[in-house]
Amino acid sequence: MPTRRAALLSAVAAATTLLPGITARTASAAPRTSGPLKATLPPPSGPHPVGTVSLRLVDRTRTDPWVPARAYRELMVSVRYPARSVEGHPAAPQMLPGEAAAFAALNSFTGVPADAVDWSATRTHAHEGAPIDRCESPRPVICYSPGAGDPRSLGTTLCDDLASRGHVVVMLDHTYDAVAVQFPDGRVEKTVLPAEYDKAYPDEDRITALLRKTLAVRVADARFLLDALPGALPGELRGALDMDRVGMFGQSAGGFTALQAMHDDRRIAAAADLDGVLAYVQNDSTPGNLSTVAADGLDRPFLLMGMDGNDLDAVPSWDALWRNSRGWHRGLTLRGAEHATYTDAEALIPQIAHRLGLPRKTVVANIGTIPPRHAIGAERACLAAFFDRWLRGRDDDGLLDGTSDRYPEMRPFPRRHA
Length: 418
Fold this sequence. Notes:
Blueprint: H1 7-12, H2 14-23, E1 50-59, E2 73-82, E3 91-93, H3 97-105, E4 123-128, E5 139-145, H4 156-164, E6 168-172, E7 180-182, E8 188-190, H5 193-200, H6 204-232, E9 241-251, H7 253-264, E10 268-274, H8 292-296, E11 302-306, H9 316-324, E12 329-334, H10 345-356, H11 360-367, H12 372-392, E13 410-412
Helix pairs in contact: 4-12, 6-7, 10-11
InterPro entries: AB_hydrolase_fold, TAT_signal
GO molecular function: hydrolase activity
Protein name: Hydrolase
């Protein structure tokens, strides 16, 4: 597999490595349509309509680790849940205006013109303030952590789908890590990671320390979320969440966060890592600098899902976790996938490329060669099967063993590692 930066480092280094590709214009692009492009997200596949509320959480036990002058740590989360009815409740935007403006200026999409998309115009399939369906109550809870530098909203396709299948999904923004977080009073707090990377570069020890700090802050955020969530819920949702059945997943650094948080906090019963390295290294294939979750292993269920080429042979930290773990675990590689295939990029990039006349190489660089409907279908099915199995006790019909004819691109890790 070609050498590539660990996803966590790539986001931290955004100012020096990602920004040129983001802002570059594509010479072969066709003339744009009038005004910024407005993209759409695929509807969820489950039987329930989806409701949502946003919550501001304040951890007064911590000075903010990124902005020490702030005496507390402040977070935003979105709670997605199966709704009884969505009539009269507007569809929530994927990004608020302040978040969208920052995302347009600094994101990890290669070769996409920064000002060509109206990121604030995309609507999700979750409806603001819709009443929760209490037919199954309390419901299992799944927390979501995005990749470093990404907003929580870049995982909407998978999170809304899990909610439509009956789970409560809590999408977490890591303030000053995410490109921007907009709070209810209108404030927009932007990422400090590019500046922190500039201060650390090129000292390898300082870069490693920055990676460790970034992950430690994220894990502390996740654990605080579990502490604060029950008391922060609005009345309509109180009593509807089963905090004894908690799972977590994430993409890239969010996947690392999910597994490390499960290692550190026994309240998390199962976790899935979508193409996230589990070591403090600059390339996924570099051995050493293991996290404690990789070095110690896990005694509870976990799922690894990798892009094309990412398996136990290619990612040493995954191999260490696998060898050291005593609980149930599975590993799947999605053929034709790229790192961002496990985000909303899978749905958004093809639309953007088509409307702007971007070359196929731009699509492939971002989301690989797998057809988007195949990728999204496989990801949704595998995540739902995993969490249904370990939070609801339902059989997955062999899907997690990579034996389903419905998703031929999803292949299990080599059997010699099983």
